[in-house]
Amino acid sequence: MLIVFDLDDTLIDTSGTITPYKLKEFLTFLVRRGIDVGDWENAIAEITQLDKQCVTSKDTVRFTLERYGAVHLYPAALALYSEPLPKDFRIPTTPHAKNVLEVLHSRGNRLALVTGGKKDYQLEKIEKAGLEPALFSKIMVPADMKKRSAYESLLKDFLVLPGDCVVVGDRIPMDLVPAHDLGFRTVHMRWGRGHLWKKEKWIERSISDLSELLEIL
Length: 217
Ligand SMILES: [Mg+2]
Fold this sequence. Notes:
The protein is α/β, with parallel strands linked by helices and 217 residues long.
């Protein structure tokens, strides 16, 4: 079996650690640029609430800038989101992620990681979470967040049939829909933004702890 993982909010707890940190950075940036965000605690609470409803952090940034009449700051604000994290910043994995990867690997499965975003930043997250890159036969970072072509190239590289591949991810439209279109099996990780979507009939399993994979794969 080829098991393809998403990174953010699937293997690592992005929404619990990186997101709150980046939201504060973003608000601090706005204040430095002379934007009146009002009461700091309120502003944090509001942007946190907004972020939970948004499908991507780009949307959070855009809606917030529109609200403060500061859309001209969009490129600079977005750049903040993929700036390196502080040296001592540690990112926890989601529960049991490391153990599950090791067990699935030891059972003879091939593992791959397909994560959208800026390559350096995504690799930094893998390192800061202490995930073992050697467990993955392939790590792909498609810059445009479009995963379909990455999945297709995995089929060619590993000479596997779609039915022998499973994708595990939290975002149904980005991670699972293109996989399902290609005939892959799909597992929805309900973590972080993964809570935004309801279970779809075609999704094989919905989980909130990766150790549930050990029973089905
Ligand atoms: Mg994700």
